[in-house]
Amino acid sequence: MSTIIIDGKALAQNIRHDVANRVSALKEKGITACLAVIILGDDPASQSYVRGKEKACGDVGILSRDYKLSSTTSEEELVLLIEELNRDESVHGILVQLPLPKHINESTIIETIDPNKDVDGFHPNSLGKLMLGQDTFIPCTPHGVIKMLESVDISTEGKNIVIIGRSHIVGSPLSQLLIQKTPTGNATVTICHSRTKNLSDFTKRADIIIAAVGVPQMLTSDMVSDGVVIIDVGVNRVEDSTKAKGYRLVGDVDFEGMLNKASVLTPVPGGVGPMTITMLLFNTIKSAEITFDRR
Ligand code: GUN
Question: Among 69, 95, 146, 194, fewest CB within 10 Å belongs to which?
């Protein structure tokens, strides 16, 4: 079986084109969509994500306001900054890069963000609406995964979908999207995680597998059935002395091993990653448009 590789970059480009048009249209009405990005400390992976977000904003005409703070910033200071950005009418989206330093309570910070500016979709208000099937900001990676499945016309209805990973950012919200009574839902979803026994028993029965655990190349070809659709959300740095940076990026899936076994596969890098950032741009223009409509 020849495997279709979904080009996340190309798909992201198409959606970004639409976002850019919406950003221009809103600019003509006098509003420049603006995303505030807050990052604490100097974790290389987080910094690299944030650079990617800033560049993507620039490419579609969204203003990105960056707050690069020390890892010793207190929770109180961070709360005050978010409250200021909540009040600032020129800011349409607020993103706090996770993970945060250990002395800061992540829930406190996420709950400080105005739900109307919660472009990550992590606020309990947003996640509650998502669960109820109400319109809200859909978390970016789950939304990107749905768009990828749509792009290759894969119907989820009645399919057995196994999600590996139960994070609040990916696995949990994605499971909600996939069980809803919508054209991209109606699936039978199983969430597997670190305490799942005999993972292969589940993955072998899956029509679609979404791997989001953060363990390099853990899903191997002996664990899946012929023709399975695999979306690889993992982004893992593994040491590689042949690379100038000393590492390379691999997913949670053994990509090479899946070729000619999976019917559809996503690469890392160039798969889900560009889609996540694109859906962040999508949420930011959506927020700016709602602000305009409310005026
Ligand atoms: N850290 C890893 N992924 C994400 C994300 O999608 N949003 C934020 N804010 N932090 C992250």
Answer: 194
Would you name the residues annotated as active-site residues?
Answer: 53, 97, 120
What integer pLDDT is reported at residue 74 of this predicted model? 98
Query: Per-residue DSSP letters for 253-277?
Result: B-HHHHTTT-SEE--SSSSHHHHHH
Ligand 1 center–CA 2 separation, angstroms? 33
183 and 61 within one domain: no
Would you say 143 and 279 are in contact if contact means Cβ atoms under 8 Å apart? yes
CA angle, corner 32, sides to 34 and 38, nearest 5? 10
CA distance 142 to 276: 8
Do 150 and 245 have their domain in common? yes
Structural domain that includes position 78: 31-115
Tokens of 74: 């207190």
Contact 92, 293 (CB under 8 A): no
Residue pLDDT, tens place only, 193-209: 999 999 999 999 999 99
* Residues 6 or more apart in contact with residue 194 via CB below 8 angstroms: 213
| Residue 149 located in a structural domain | yes
What is the CATH number for 61? 3.40.50.10860
State pLDDT tens for residues 113-164.
999 999 999 999 999 999 999 999 999 999 999 999 999 999 999 999 999 9
CA 107 to centroid of ligand 1, rounded, Å: 14
Q: Tally the domains of the chain.
A: 2
Nearest CA to ligand 1 atom 1: 98
CA 54 to chain centre: 15
